[in-house]
Specification:
Layout (H helix, E strand, L loop, with lengths): L7 E10 L2 E11 L3 E6 L6 H8 L7 E6 L2 E2 L4 H6 L1 E5 L10 H11 L4 H15 L14 H12 L6 E5 L7 H13 L6 E6 L2 H7 L2 E6 L2 E6 L1 H8 L4 H22 L1
Parallel strand pairs: 3-8, 3-9, 6-7, 7-8
Antiparallel strand pairs: 1-2, 1-4, 4-5, 9-10
Organism: Deinococcus proteolyticus (strain ATCC 35074 / DSM 20540 / JCM 6276 / NBRC 101906 / NCIMB 13154 / VKM Ac-1939 / CCM 2703 / MRP)
GO molecular function, one term: ATP hydrolysis activity
EC number: 3.6.3.25
Length: 256
């Protein structure tokens, strides 16, 4: 059997703003059927990377492909096969959840019956409940996040991008989000989970890429990262990778 191509393929991907390098030659290949974590502090390059994948930014160098589609040369096709959730996304206050979902289903060419069937599936998975018939202006934070996620996956995207999606959620909404992410693994589908919160990565991610200063420091399963750094926890592994990177950067600067 021929192996399936990776759902995410990055080759020397970089983004520069004048003299500042936000993303520095990242090369990465990620298969479907998993939750893949992007772990790093604020400013690590995570959001820049995800905005390139979402076709919102143009890379300065290198290439990125999502589901075999080049993000620069085929942006419209890429947008059809991704869903995006971040902590700052809003919803139209006057529309109900059902109206919002029907509106987005129409963007992807789903007819009314298809949209209703998909909404029923998402209601069962996310427990949308009264969000469907309540105007978004009346939502709690948890209700808003549920509809935001449902909106992002209404077309059943091959790649779902979650960028600090748990940011600002209360404990119950955060729990519902993590449970849904863990249950959403399927062959041929990929969830990119970007966060700076170690416990979220430890709970839901199958493999992890560690980013710092725009550079990819390491990628692998959590046991692989622990073994590589001789660490007992993912947090320890992260700090050891950062320390090693900073020492390497200082050594390189002295060698010039």
């Amino acid at each position: 059997m021929t192996p399936s191509p990776p759902l995410l393929e990055l080759k020397q991907l970089s983004k520069r703003y004048g003299s500042f390098t936000a993303l520095d030659g990242v090369t990465l290949s990620v298969d479907g059927g998993q939750v893949f974590g992007l772990l790093g502090p604020n400013g690590a390059g995570k959001t820049t990377l995800l905005r390139i994948l979402a076709t919102l930014l143009q890379p300065s160098a290198g290439t990125a492909a999502v589901a075999g589609l080049d993000v620069t040369r085929q942006p419209d096709a890429v947008r059809q096969c991704i869903g995006v959730v971040n902590g700052g996304m809003g919803l139209p206050a006057r529309l109900t959840g059902r109206e919002i979902l029907h509106s987005f289903a129409g963007f992807y060419g789903l007819g009314r019956a298809q949209a209703e069937a998909r909404i029923a599936e998402l209601d069962a998975a996310l427990d949308l409940g009264r969000t469907l018939n309540t105007r978004a202006g009346e939502y709690s934070t948890g209700m808003r996040q549920k509809v935001t996620i449902a909106r992002a996956v209404i077309q059943d995207p091959a790649v779902l991008i979650l960028d600090e999606a748990a940011s600002g959620l209360d404990i119950f909404a955060r729990r519902a989000l993590l449970d849904w992410v863990a249950a959403a693994r399927r062959p041929g589908r990929l969830t990119l989970y970007s966060t700076h919160v170690m416990s979220e990565v430890e709970e839901v991610c199958d493999r992890v890429a560690v980013l710092h200063g725009g550079r990819l420091l390491a990628e692998g399963t959590q046991p692989e990262l622990l073994a590589r750094t001789e660490a007992g926890t993912l947090e320890q592994a992260f700090f050891r990778l950062v320390e090693q990177d900073e020492a390497a950067q200082v050594g390189a600067a002295h060698a010039l």
